[in-house]
Amino acid sequence: MAQVKGRLAVLTGGGDCPGLNAVIRAVVKTALKNGYEIYGIENGFNGLITGTMKLMDYASVSGILPRGGTILGTTNRDNPFHFAVEENGKYVFYDKREEVVKNLRDRNIEALVVIGGGSLNIAAKLAAECDVKVVGVPKTIDNDLQCTERTFGFDTAMAMATEALDRLHTTAESHHRVMALEVMGRYAGWIALHSGIAGGADVILLPEIPYDINSVLRKIEERRKSGKKFSIIVVAEGAKPIGGELSVARVVEGSFEPLRLGGAGEKLVREIENRTGIESRCTVLGYLQRGGSPTAFDRVLSTRYGVAAAEACIRKEYNVMVSLQGDKIVTEPIAKVAAQPRLVPLDSEIIRTGRQMGLCFGD
Ligand code: F6P
After folding, report:
1. Residue pLDDT, tens place only, 78-114
2. 337 near 146, Cβ under 8 Å?
3. Which residues are catalytic?
4. CA 330, chain centre distance (Å)
5. Are 72 and 9 in contact (CB under 8 A)?
6. Predicted model pTM
7. DSSP H helical segments within the chain, as ranges?
8. Which of 16, 77, 141, 252 to mutate to test the pocket of ligand 1 (most atoms within 8 A of CB)?
9. Are strands 178-183 and 259-261 parallel, antiparallel or unpaired?
10. 3-state DSSP call for residue 53?
11. Which atom of ligand 1 is found nearest the CA of 260?
């Protein structure tokens, strides 16, 4: 039997995202092809803390390219530096870094591929404070990570939102209604902006541009005067009126980022209906944006990212994140990625495109 050159491990952290399985498949196949063994860690950082992992082979990644979700399981809780345990009805937090390091050392795992969004923060901290060798892969439907032009999963979410807008158009037109679609994205408006342009929305409300309700009403009125009796609005979950509050749906204790946004769309349509008398409805697209099969674009990007991440491990280029820049896959120091979310720049060409098309951004 050929000698094993080394051992790697892979985990998926944070919310699920279309393309996770495509990345896992590419990481595993590249590792095996180059003579490495590779562990699949179950349920994100939880499996790293508890040592729940298994060696992967070609059969374990067979047939998963088009499949949604993650065969490894994931969680957006279980931060090893701040591990929440419920004791007597209260959360108590523990530092589990020693368990993580031991679980990797016991199995001679030399590097860890972390497929994550916000959870890449944890990977960066493991690298900086525990000398764990990590390679990150930028995952999130929100497309809000620094140091890359695209995260995988975004294209699929955008396609889902665009299809929803096409469907809402026909019902809005038939009923002469204002229809809002609330989309995900946390504090960044990438999904709202791109799907709004692709789906021919009339108004797009982004977290980056607090809105003035009067500006939205003017747009609806302008359309009615020109004979268009319906309007389509895309509302990012992080959108808020000027001087107003974020719409928070819940607080998830023990989660990497406890606030869950939701309700911005319903709040908006109620105000529109109250102020104009026009029947207005909101659809919340929710987890449909994350579930199911990735688009062809996301399958290709995920595969490129997975291969590049395994290659970085093999050439021992550690503590980086693979990144798309132009049409090239490059690496960036993982410490640079973690800080703040990447927001839509207000002077970007895509915002200008929207404005030239007569779109209202609520300002
Ligand atoms: O980051 C991905 C995302 O889907 C966000 O767009 C959304 O705000 C959040 O995760 C929802 O998180 P959860 O799965 O914990 O409800």
Report:
1. 899 999 888 998 889 999 999 999 999 999 999 999 9
2. yes
3. 142
4. 20
5. no
6. 0.96
7. 20-33, 45-50, 97-106, 120-130, 154-175, 190-198, 213-225, 264-276, 296-314, 334-337, 349-356
8. 141
9. unpaired
10. strand
11. 8
Q: What's residue 257's pLDDT?
A: 84
Rounded distance from Cα 107 to ligand 1 centre (Å):
33
Compute CA distances 221 → 56, 88, 147, 226, whole Å: 59, 56, 41, 9
Q: Which two tokens stand for residue 181?
A: 């679609």
Binned at pLDDT 50, 70 and 90, residue 1 comes out as low
Q: Tell me the DSSP string of 141-187.
A: TT---TT-S--BTHHHHHHHHHHHHHHHHHHHHHHT-EEEEEE--TT
What are 321's two structure tokens? 């994140």
Q: Tokens for 67?
A: 């499949």
Contact by Cβ (8 Å): 350, 189: no
Dist. CA 8 → ligand 1 center (Å): 28
- Residue in the block written with tokens 């374990």: 60
